[in-house]
């Protein structure tokens, strides 16, 4: 099977690592890719957000399967264009990707499917913003309704900051959603689906805030671990029955079947499981810890989802142990990341590349805010964590920052779910 991965982050590097170890894969390409993916997958140039260009590359490279990593190409219709070219594609249609592309669309689907989520107030203008904040009460949750790479949400008890964020989004021409605040630990649960059958993967948790102790601004994700030793027994089955299957069924009922990766961002609140958000693709950085634990060959699984044959797929097999990934970020991330700095030690085992390129002299340089996702597997979470931080010590990037407490609360037994 010739497999083409679209994207250029550490999620795509992790996908390439897993796909390259599937004996069914005879050729692997990653477009546009990064300095890390080049070592295991053919590089190819593509403007990932252009569906016509993605489909043209898939045809000329003679792909049997295209795996679209990021949300932007999906929301732009890349999966439709690839399928129209007669090539199997792992990823939802433009219509179905609205479950991530529009938070209010996702709320409508959840309401119709009876899926538990936070109450929300759509805000059309500045006057409605104050009323919505009054009704929701503190802590305030103010969201950009559209795609914002995880950075469109402000959660704060400071009403002025909540108002300011709402105005920023409105002034930029966006729509705002004010939400009820959800307490309790967060879980990311991915499911592979062909639009009918739903196969959940292992639950993971990412660290969204920039600083240790969950301080600082929201980011795309500063680290992750899986599985969750503190998760209540039966969590995955509960989420399958109350969230994932009803959502997939509702999308099919609307005539917008969702096939690909449905990512449920959940809060385990004192009042039960609530959906914080859906994403229409593998999470980043959670993919970097979920895929190393998957023993089932990945290409066969994604191909079954892309071709509507998941019902006949064998149950997923997982290795024992745990995985931890620590994101090494560029100075200034997330607000104004500095790029172009040399990166060394990044060809070591477990070092996944997020934002890197190779210059004309062959030097690896930072090219994004999240530069590396340094990953390790261990016999338990403590061992995986120790190994991941040993590996972080081996990489060099001037001014880099990373969290030192990824998976620490879980290792120390400080997380409890209701
Ligand atoms: P989102 O872009 O919707 O994924 O939100 C990003 C992050 O903001 C989430 O992972 C949560 O940590 C936080 N967040 C979003 N919505 C809520 C909410 N209703 N209550 C509490 N925290 C939230
Ligand atoms: N880890 C958050 C995301 O992928 O959206």
UniProtKB/TrEMBL annotation:
Keywords: ATP-binding, Ligase, Nucleotide-binding, Purine biosynthesis. InterPro entries: ATP-grasp, ATP_grasp_subdomain_1, PreATP-grasp_dom_sf, PRibGlycinamid_synth_ATP-grasp, PRibGlycinamide_synth, PRibGlycinamide_synth_C-dom, PRibGlycinamide_synth_C_sf, PRibGlycinamide_synth_CS. SUPFAM superfamilies: Glutathione synthetase ATP-binding domain-like (SSF56059), PreATP-grasp domain (SSF52440), Rudiment single hybrid motif (SSF51246). It catalyses: 5-phospho-beta-D-ribosylamine + glycine + ATP = N(1)-(5-phospho-beta-D-ribosyl)glycinamide + ADP + phosphate + H(+). Pathway: Purine metabolism; IMP biosynthesis via de novo pathway; N(1)-(5-phospho-D-ribosyl)glycinamide from 5-phospho-alpha-D-ribose 1-diphosphate: step 2/2. The keyword Repeat does not apply. It comes from the Bacteria. It is an enzyme of class 6 (ligase). PROSITE patterns: ATP_GRASP, GARS. Its cofactor is Mg(2+); Mn(2+). One of its GO terms (molecular function) is ATP binding. Pfam families: GARS_A, GARS_C, GARS_N. Gene3D superfamilies: 3.40.50.20, ATP-grasp fold, A domain, ATP-grasp fold, B domain, Phosphoribosylglycinamide synthetase, C-terminal domain. Its EC number is 6.3.4.13. Residues 107-307 form the ATP-grasp domain. SMART domains: GARS_A, GARS_C. One of its GO terms (biological process) is purine nucleobase biosynthetic process. Belongs to the GARS family. This is Phosphoribosylamine--glycine ligase. It comes from Geodermatophilus obscurus.
């Amino acid at each position: 099977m010739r497999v083409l991965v679209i994207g250029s982050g550490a999620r795509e590097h992790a996908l390439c690592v897993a796909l390259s170890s599937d004996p069914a894969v005879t050729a692997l390409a990653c477009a546009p890719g990064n300095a890390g993916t080049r070592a295991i997958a053919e590089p190819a140039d593509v403007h990932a957000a252009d569906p016509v260009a993605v489909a043209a590359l898939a045809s000329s490279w003679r792909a049997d399967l295209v795996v679209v990593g990021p949300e932007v190409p999906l929301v732009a219709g890349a999966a439709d264009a690839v399928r129209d070219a007669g090539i199997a594609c792992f990823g939802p249609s433009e219509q179905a990707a609205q479950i991530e592309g529009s938070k209010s669309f996702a709320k409508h689907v959840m309401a119709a499917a009876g899926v538990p989520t936070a109450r929300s107030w759509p805000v059309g203008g500045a006057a409605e913003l104050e009323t919505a904040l009054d009704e929701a009460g503190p802590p305030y949750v103010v969201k950009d309704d559209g795609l914002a790479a995880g950075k469109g949400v402000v959660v704060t008890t400071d009403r002025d900051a909540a108002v300011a964020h709402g105005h920023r989004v409105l002034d930029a021409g966006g729509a705002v959603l004010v939400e009820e605040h959800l307490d309790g630990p967060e879980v990311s649960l991915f499911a592979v689906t062909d639009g009918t059958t739903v196969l959940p993967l292992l639950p993971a948790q990412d660290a969204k805030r920039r600083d240790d102790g969950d301080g600082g601004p929201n980011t795309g994700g500063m680290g992750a671990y899986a599985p969750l030793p503190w998760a209540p027994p039966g969590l995955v089955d509960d989420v399958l029955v109350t969230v994932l299957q009803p959502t997939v069924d509702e999308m099919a009922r609307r005539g917008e079947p969702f096939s690909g990766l449905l990512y449920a961002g959940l809060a385990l609140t004192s009042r039960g499981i609530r959906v914080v958000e859906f994403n229409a693709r593998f999470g980043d950085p959670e993919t970097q810890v979920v895929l190393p634990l998957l023993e089932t060959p990945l290409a066969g699984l994604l191909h079954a989802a892309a071709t509507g044959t998941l019902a006949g797929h064998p149950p997923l097999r997982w290795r024992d142990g745990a995985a931890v990934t620590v994101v090494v970020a560029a100075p200034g991330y997330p607000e104004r990341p500095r790029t172009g700095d040399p990166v060394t030690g990044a060809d070591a085992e477990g070092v996944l590349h997020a934002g890197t390129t190779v210059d004309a002299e062959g030097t690896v340089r930072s090219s994004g805010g999240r530069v590396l996702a340094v990953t390790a597997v261990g016999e338990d979470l403590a061992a995986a964590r120790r190994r991941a931080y040993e590996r972080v010590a081996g990489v060099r990037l001037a001014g880099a920052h990373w969290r030192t407490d990824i998976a620490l609360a879980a290792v120390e037994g400080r997380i409890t779910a209701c």
